[in-house]
Every structure is written in structure tokens, then in C-alpha cells.
Amino acid sequence: MRAIAKEQGRHLALLHDDLALLDSGFDSLCFAILVVRLEDSFGVDPLGDVEAEDVPKTFGEFVHLYDHALA
Amino acid sequence: MRSPDPDSGTSRLRELMQAALAASAGAAPVLDDGVDALALPALVEHAWVEAPQDAVRGRNLLLMTRRPLSAAVALCSLDSVANRLVIVPPDLVKANLAGVIEDAEAHAIIHDDLDHDTLDAPLPGYRIRFGADGGGPRFAEIDHASEWCLFTSGTTGPPKMVAHSLAGLIDAIARGAAAEGEPPVWATFYDVRRYGGLQMLLRALVGGHTLHMMAPGENLSQFLTRIAAASVTHVAGTPTHWRSALTTREISGIAPRYVRLSGEVADQSVLDRLAEQFPSASRGHAYASTEAGVGFEVTDGREGFPAAFLTRPGVVEMKLEADTLRVRSPRIASRYLGADAPSVAEPDGFVDTGDIIEQRGDRLYFMGRSNGVINVGGLKVHPEEVEAVINRCPGVRMSRVKGRANPITGAIVAADVVMLEPTPALGDLAREKRELILEHCRESLAAFKVPASVKFVETLPMTAAGKLDRRAA
Known about the structure:
The complex is a heterodimer of chains A (about 70) and B (about 475).
Chain A: H1 2-7, H2 28-42, H3 59-70
Chain B: H1 13-23, E1 30-32, E2 37-39, H2 40-45, E3 49-50, H3 53-56, E4 60-64, H4 68-78, E5 84-87, H5 97-104, E6 108-111, E7 125-128, E8 147-151, E9 161-165, H6 166-169, H7 171-175, E10 185-188, H8 195-207, E11 210-213, H9 220-229, E12 234-237, H10 239-245, E13 258-261, H11 268-277, E14 282-289, E15 293-298, E16 305-306, E17 317-321, E18 324-328, E19 335-336, E20 351-360, E21 363-369, E22 374-376, E23 379-381, H12 383-391, E24 396-406, E25 410-419, H13 428-444, E26 453-456
Parallel strand pairs in B: 1-11, 4-5, 4-6, 5-8, 6-7, 10-11, 10-12, 12-13, 13-14, 25-26
Antiparallel strand pairs in B: 1-2, 3-7, 8-9, 9-19, 14-15, 16-21, 17-18, 18-20, 20-21, 22-23, 24-25
């Protein structure tokens, strides 16, 4: 995420579980790139098939979604 | 509230705003980006551009602003004053400025930047000011309508500009149903310097309504908090904006009566999520493009659009030819700017939108772009443009750029690259070379055009004719 923030000239907030994703300093393009890089590294795109109510809103939920997909 | 009569004649922004303000009762409408709020009456009464009248009247002007709000203010001050108003989007690459000035036959730059002088533009610059002391006397109007020019978002090579008239730009607004009940309070995630956002701006201006827009550096959560406090009733954005907004906690703070999507294909999942979030709001997804103007709006909550739209009477005529959608209406752009520019419409007056349509039953669905254009969150990317940049990188033999499905922006740019020297797909060497290519891309392409992934491959698929096979997965 640091690398993407640097590439896109954005300031990354201090990451913690309760941080709302949109307060992280990332815009939708940054998240789109992050999802691609995670898929390239881990072979999963869990965000592609989540239901509306399960869309992660915080950094903790985002990490959990990937943990769960890789478990 | 009354809608302006599309056939009444006047298409001067000032007169349309005056008429709307005279007809509206209640709170004073404003344009607000969270930093400044400008009252619509003040925009009608004063000019907010510091320039000698001769420098702007009858001239061709580039509006190059840091803030979307400044562009809006400049448009109010300069419509019917300038001969041509060219609204420059924020991501114009500096190297393309000279070509833009030439094609636009520009005389001056209107800006809001204290550091404007560092731009080294070969034209005089005049500043937009809207502090308490910013308003000056209005400039004298010219006797013809100003040409309003926008950049097309998907062009290979140097940017292309299309010319519209204000009458064409507001035609869909003027023919729309008048708002009922309390006057709407609009908010838009769009940048008003592009077609979709400009529609929202004009809707507010000629309707006499408040519009909340984003300021540079503001994120969606902050914007949602701000518009919740302002009790917005009408909110517009692309499916990508909405997908992002729906991930925030702050989304539950707004309760709009109307939500609107346009700029890219609205799929069923984003429509369903919006229905879940705003069960009592009316929802519409609109089809529009910078060249073809506003086509139609779909309000039944389903993706695609009814096949009956092709045959219904109205000012917008549509037909399918070779499976792509063609549109003819008073809302299409009049021409591209530039000496050798092709015409926007075909000889029969229809614009080929390049959108491939498939019919299933009585419904028509969007199936992608005939020219392979990738739509990244509403912004169009021509694969050829990105390939050309990659192919100029030292060590690259050839590349193929394609769209890759993405849960946030709908699609994102991905590149397959063949190097002169065999390069492994993984490892430090690959990482190093990938970084070189990306750095090169970031220097000459807007951020949304830079590949999110670069994969090294040994060969690329070819067609029998020896061309890069763009259809192969």
C-alpha cells in the first residue's frame, strides 16, 4: 500500500484495524490497483464476489476478507 | 418549479439563471466545494475573472483550474462573452498543452493558480477570484453564442476536443421533468470539467439549485459527511463513485430522494446495492457521452435498457448498426477542434458511439466497446495509446494492453509485455524492469491510464493477418 501511495502521490494514513478505508488516503484508483496486485500475488480476488452487506468498510475488515479467502 | 423551455430561444447562461432565480422561492442556492460557497445571484451579477474586457471578449479561452469550482465560476462569468470556452480537465499532460493551444486557437488562459507563471504557457493568463472582493462588473456580451469545448476522455495520442453549444448541452435538462416539491439540493462526485459533471453543474445553474461538489484533496468520506450536513436530496456519480461510496460508514448519513449514475455501464450489482441502501429513493442510470450528448435515462432499476427506446419518438433517435449504438440528436457535439479533425457524426447525422449492444428478449445490454476502449471508472483508455508508450521503453519489443475486470473501477489497465531479452515472469529482474516501464508510463500518461499490472510474456497472440489479436484472452 505504501508503494501504491507513493506511485500515485498520495499520503497514506497510519494503518490500523478500525481505520475506514476511505480515510486511508487511497482513492478508488489506488484500491483498484491494490486489488490487482493482491490478486497477482495471492491468486484470489475476494472483493469480486462479496455480497453488498459484506463489502469491507475498514482496514481490519479488508485484511480479514483476504485472510478468509486464503485460509 | 419550471424547467427552461428548450424551444424558447435564449441560450445565454446568465439569462437562464436569472429566469430560474426569479421563479424560485426559498433558500438562496449556492455552488459549494466546502472551501467556498458562491451564491447563484452573485454569479449572475458579477464577473469573477480579473481581466481587461478586451482580453476575454470575443476571445478563445482555456479554462485551466486547480479547483472544479473555479471552472464553474469562470463559465458563469464568460459564457456569451468569450467566443470559445475550452474546459481543460485536471489531468492534461503538460507536453500536450502546445497542441491544445493550437487546436483551440486559444488567446489566453483563465486560471485560479497563484503559481500560474510557472506553467511557462506562451499565452497571457488571467485569474479567477472569488473572495469577498473578487466580483467585478460583468463583461459586455457578444452577439453570438459561445462555443463550449470539452475534452474527450478516450483518445489516442494528443487529446481531442469537441465543441458543443450551451443549447445542446442543456437540452436534456430543459426537456426533463420539472422537480416536484421542495427544490432539490444536488451533490455530485463528478468533476464538473468533464461531460457528466458539467451536466450536473448546468442542471444546478439553469434550475436555480444548490450544487455541492468535491474540492481537490477531499475524499469520499469527507464529502459524504459534508453533503449529509447539507441535507442533499439529489446525488450523482459514476458506478465507480457509488461502489466506493457504498463502502463508507458515512453513506448512511445521506438520504437522497434521487440517485443518478452515468459515465460507465451500470451493472445489476451496483443498482441492487443502491436500491438496498436507498430503498425510498428514485434511481436512474443515464447513457451519455462527450460526443453524442445525453441519450436516455433508465429508471426501472435494471441494467441495460428497454429495446423500445430504439423506436420511441423524441429528440434522440437511436439505431443499431453492426451491433453498435448510433445516436442522432440536437445534443451531439458539432465538431472536433483542430485543422484536420474528422467529423463527429457520420453523413446521415448519427454518431457511432462505439458501444456494442446485445439484445436479449426485449432488453438491450452493453457488451463493451467496438474499438477496445477500456473504461476505468468512467475514464476511457485506448489500449493503443498505452502500448505506444510502453513500446518506447528501452528493452521492450512489443506489448498488448487490455482491460482487466476490477471490483472497484469496473475495469483497469493491464499490460502483457514482450522484452527484447528473454525476461522471467517473476523475480528481482522482472520487478526491476516492471518498475522502469511503469516509471516511463507515469511520466507520460494520466494515472488511470498507467497499467496496474505488467506481465512479461514470451509471445503475444497474432491474427491471421499478422495483427495483434486483441480478442484473445
